[in-house]
Specification:
Layout: H1 9-20, H2 24-38, H3 49-56, H4 60-68, H5 85-102, H6 112-116, H7 121-138, H8 163-170
Helix pairs in contact: 2-7, 4-5
């Protein structure tokens, strides 16, 4: 975390719970995918959570990643290496908006401070995984990596029925609605009969 001392009490417990969601195995998959996708220009981070955060913190690797997934010119013009915090955070924001346009759902997105301050790196992993899944699903030829690293999202399976088929379907009682065919209370008894005194 940037410029902050250790947290105590409830804040510490909350941060520990957030930190426990970080997956080192997923980190290795993401690093390998990003390195393949972007080429050798992005390098490799030091192993571990802090190395992963430092690698992505300035936003250059993220912008290179999102640009490599698009055909033609990338959605973000160019990544600039800058030591200034606001420039780095701006580049992270540009990546997030480009990822949203690419198709990543808003609920899968991390906040800029999650990465820049290292508050929730599991959320960063979740966003990058969602981006990888979209790239595998779209199958535009821009994905460079093993397709088994990310799951393929479900595709729309639209069906067109004729009017005849729709009318025939109205006459069928589905099993979800239940059926009383063959049902009777014959032979059923519950406990002892009622005692009248």
């Amino acid at each position: 975390m940037a410029n902050k001392g250790p947290s105590y009490g409830m804040s510490r417990q909350v941060q520990d719970k957030i930190d426990s969601k970080y997956d080192p195995e997923l980190e290795q998959i993401l690093v390998e995918w990003i390195a393949r996708q972007c080429g050798s220009s992005v390098g490799n981070p030091e192993p571990g959570k802090m190395g992963f955060q430092a690698w992505l913190k300035d936003g250059c690797v993220l912008i290179t990643l999102i640009n490599s997934l698009s055909t033609g010119d990338g959605p973000v013009k160019k990544a600039h290496t800058s030591p200034m915090a606001f420039k780095q955070m701006e580049q992270i924001s540009q990546f997030l908006s480009a990822a949203e346009k690419y198709g990543v759902i808003k609920t899968d997105m991390f906040q800029t401070v999650d990465l820049w301050e290292g508050k929730d790196l599991a959320a960063v992993q979740r966003t990058l995984s969602a981006l990888g899944s979209l790239a595998v699903t779209k199958d535009e030829g821009t994905y460079k990596g093993d397709p088994s690293w990310f799951f393929k999202k479900a595709q729309e399976n639209k069906r067109d029925f004729s009017d005849e088929q729709m009318k025939a379907g109205k006459n069928v009682i589905g099993l979800q609605m239940g059926s009383n065919k063959g049902a009777s209370q014959e032979g059923m008894s519950y406990g002892r009969p009622r005692q009248i005194m």
